[in-house]
């Protein structure tokens, strides 16, 4: 069956959005690079142990927050040419909220933050027993579950440094996921209260869609964040994913979402050009958290939630390697990988950065194509 002229026009328009985003991002990228270098917004070695690893020493001094190139380009083009009350405003809002969280962490870690500590559980228990002020003892007792949450959440992150602690990031990510879930459940209608099961049709799960949306938004945002550790890795993989999301959105008739995904693809092309080794800047939390949240919400809006393990394949592999490493450390008393996330494991095994990044791209592309094939049924 031939594609209708209207469908071809929509696809052409999506391609124009991608080209416009690419050109726009290329045009203002030098201004961003100059700004980042001028104010020395860079990752500090005392809070990033990987900068002491062999060839990674050359990354010291490379600015972070290059993800602003992607985020701002997407926001401006969408506001000007693709603003739609039903669909595009909420993905942009969730992306912006996640990016603000990442940007706050980047700024605190590198510019204005102060080093903070979280008391150890055994220290708190001792204070509960020996503190002279009974009111303070009572307060420490009542807040013990909160202290336990803060301490255990550190398992999921690296050295907290001067930025946001893991529990603070998780709470704010939960808020972003909760806003997205509220919008989808209460505003989009009955169709979005069901999930598409490949090869089987749709299953209405009612309110259970809410925790699923929150989980996928949080999990995917953090997954992309963990993958942003090698020049070009996250950017190149995201180009593949958002290009396929553009195609899927077009196929299922979500025209504004196709334009949004195409815009993201174009902005990522320009970003990755400057991020290829030797990188002019790195994505930073502002970009990785923002794009991870956008990836999740855009996939959910076109009702393909269960395709996320394919569309975000390499990102999920990266975060699962961190979870496995944590489990090995605390349950088995040993490391499973030489270092997590997984790209550092191969780096320590002697793979060059270019070899690791390109093989991860290829592996990711294969699973994204598999996801596209599944979506056709």
TrEMBL record:
Keywords: Cell cycle, Cell division, Cell membrane, Cell shape, Cell wall biogenesis/degradation, Magnesium, Membrane, Metal-binding, Peptidoglycan synthesis, Transferase, Transmembrane, Transmembrane helix. The keyword Cell wall biogenesis/degradation applies. One of its GO terms (molecular function) is UDP-N-acetylmuramoyl-L-alanyl-D-glutamyl-meso-2,6-diaminopimelyl-D-alanyl-D-alanine:undecaprenyl-phosphate transferase activity. It is a multi-pass membrane protein. Mg(2+) binds at residues 225, 285. Pathway: Cell wall biogenesis; peptidoglycan biosynthesis. Pfam families: Glycos_transf_4. HAMAP family: MraY. This is Phospho-N-acetylmuramoyl-pentapeptide-transferase. The gene is mraY.
């Amino acid at each position: 069956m031939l594609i209708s002229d209207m469908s071809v026009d929509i696809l052409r328009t999506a391609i124009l959005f991608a080209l416009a985003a690419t050109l726009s991002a290329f045009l203002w990228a030098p201004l961003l690079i100059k700004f980042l270098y001028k104010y020395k917004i860079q990752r500090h070695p005392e809070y990033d142990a990987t900068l002491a690893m062999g060839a990674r020493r050359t990354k010291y001094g490379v600015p972070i927050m290059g993800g602003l190139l992607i985020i701002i380009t997407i926001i401006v083009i969408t506001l000007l040419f693709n603003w739609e009350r039903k669909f595009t405003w909420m993905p942009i809002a969730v992306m912006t909220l996640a990016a603000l969280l990442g940007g706050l962490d980047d700024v605190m870690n590198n510019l204005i933050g102060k080093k903070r500590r979280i008391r150890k559980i055994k220290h708190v228990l001792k204070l509960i027993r020996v503190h002279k002020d009974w009111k303070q003892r009572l307060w420490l007792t009542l807040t013990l579950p909160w202290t336990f949450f803060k301490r255990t959440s550190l398992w999921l992150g690296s050295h907290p440094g001067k930025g946001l602690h893991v529990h603070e990031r998780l709470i704010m990510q939960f808020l972003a996921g909760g806003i997205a879930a509220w919008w989808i459940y209460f505003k989009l209608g009955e169709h979005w209260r069901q999930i598409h099961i490949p090869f089987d049709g749709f299953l209405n799960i009612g309110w259970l869609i809410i925790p699923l949306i929150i989980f996928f938004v949080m999990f995917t945002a953090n997954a992309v964040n963990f993958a942003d550790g090698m020049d070009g890795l996250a950017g190149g993989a995201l180009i593949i994913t958002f290009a396929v999301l553009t195609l899927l959105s077009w196929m299922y008739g979500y025209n504004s979402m196709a334009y949004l995904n195409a815009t993201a693809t174009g902005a990522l092309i320009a970003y990755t050009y400057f991020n290829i080794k030797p990188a002019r800047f790195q994505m930073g939390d502002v970009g990785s958290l923002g794009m991870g949240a956008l990836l999740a919400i855009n996939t959910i809006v076109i009702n393909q939630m269960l395709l996320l393990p394919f569309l975000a394949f390499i990102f999920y592999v990266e975060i699962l390697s961190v979870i496995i490493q944590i489990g090995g450390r605390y349950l088995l008393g040993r490391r499973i990988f030489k270092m997590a996330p997984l790209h550092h494991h191969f780096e320590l095994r002697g793979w060059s950065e270019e070899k690791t990044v390109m093989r991860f791209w290829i592996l990711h592309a294969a699973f994204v194509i598999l996801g596209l094939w599944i979506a056709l049924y």
